Amino acid sequence: MKPTRLDLYFEVAGYYEARKNAGRLAAAVEAAATLNPRDCRLDYYRGVACILARKRLAEADRYLKTYLATAPPRRDFPPHASAHVWLGRLYEQLAKLQGAAQQYKSALELDPGDKDANEGQRRTNQVR
Fold first, then answer.
1. What is the pLDDT of residues 68-78, one digit of tens each?
2. Are 22 and 32 in contact (CB under 8 A)?
3. pTM
């Protein structure tokens, strides 16, 4: 099936993000890009897919920073706090613990109850 509604592709992308399935997430994102290659949510999901796959990490950094700079805070878009959490995970992979801690702090400023940001902050504060 090839849905014609962009939001359906992003629902699928969110599903695979939650299951940490980089390959299927990337496939959903590229299918969405055929409908609207300029949608800012593509940057978020592309960055997440790169981090999950542990490939093209410099691109992941750029994708997520672009998303944060261009995406309006909307209920139907991935939360900015989540983009900061993914940047924190990326920086942990790169052993940039100060950068990771800052990203988790930024996520918690936006969403104090974010479980992943709290766990990430705990990890980076213990190691530093």
1. 999 999 999 99
2. no
3. 0.93
Each residue of 25-57: pLDDT tens digit?
999 999 999 999 999 999 999 999 999 999 999
Residue ranges of the domains in the chain?
A: 1-78, 79-128
Question: What's the maximum distance between 2 C-alpha atoms anywhere in the chain?
Answer: 48
| Cα separation, 124 vs 113, whole angstroms | 18
Sign of dihedral through CA atoms 66, 72, 77, 82? Answer: positive
Q: Which two tokens stand for residue 127?
A: 């190691």
Query: May I ask the CATH architecture of the domain 1-78?
Result: Alpha Horseshoe (1.25)
Alpha helices in the chain (DSSP H): 6-18, 22-35, 41-53, 57-70, 80-93, 97-110, 115-127
Give pLDDT, residue 125. 85
